[in-house]
Write a structure and sequence with these properties.
The structure is a single chain. It is globular, with a radius of gyration of 17 Å. The protein is of the alpha/beta class. The chain contains 7 helices and 6 strands. Strands 3-2-1-4-5-6 form a 6-stranded mixed beta sheet, sandwiched between helices.
């Protein structure tokens, strides 16, 4: 074809954008419940290990819910983070079971891609991590609502090029401890989802 089209980024569409009111109350009075939603294969396991390292370096007691599974799960050295971090492995959850688990158990969700959109649709504070397929250290996480060109996953180097505003994990743990700030995070992510990732907008 001789037709020249202007280049355009199209946001990933998300089907379900209806959610109840955000759950503000903490699930545990002594520990913050952080969730990872994604695979535990060799291309993603280092993200979870990096997250555990960041959480371990924080001053908080953490329940870390690993929602997913994969062939590299054994690479997580659980005992190295005990007793500050208590791990819960759910394996794969889908549909209503997954949504109920997230709503009932998670104060802060860490997830890239479509998984981040799911968290936002449930009005759960969700942040996106750096992703590498090798061992790395990066204490940089981005609010979904700060993804202004629709990218929902990146390496450390790519994050620098995107110029997204990022914060360390301590920043977000402190945010979800404050009911007002926690609600604000959830609502802004939910608003971003509805503004940018509906089927209508993608069309």
């Amino acid at each position: 074809s001789d037709i020249v089209f202007d280049p355009m980024y199209v946001p990933v569409p998300y089907m379900n954008t209806e959610a109840s009111v955000a759950v503000v109350k903490m699930r545990d009075e002594k520990r913050i419940n952080v969730g990872w939603l994604g695979r535990l294969d060799t291309d993603k396991i280092y993200v979870v290990i990096n997250l555990a390292e960041n959480l371990y370096a924080s001053e908080f007691l953490i329940n870390l819910h690993i929602i997913g599974d994969g062939n590299a799960r054994a690479r997580i050295n659980i005992s190295a983070y005990s007793p500050q971090i208590i791990f819960t492995f759910t394996s794969y959850l889908v549909g209503d079971v997954l949504e109920k688990y997230l709503i009932d158990n998670i104060d802060l969700l860490v997830a890239p891609g479509q998984s981040a959109l799911l968290g936002a649709s449930l009005r759960i504070p969700v942040i996106i991590p750096c992703v590498e397929n090798r061992a790395f250290f990066a204490n940089q996480y981005v609010n979904l609502f700060d993804c202004n060109n629709y990218s929902l996953g990146w390496t450390v180097k790519a994050l620098q090029k995107l110029c997204y505003e990022s914060h360390d994990i301590n920043y977000f743990l402190n945010e979800v401890l404050d009911p007002i700030k926690k609600t604000n995070l959830a609502e802004r992510n939910y608003g971003y989802l509805n503004k940018n990732h509906t089927i209508q907008n993608s069309l």
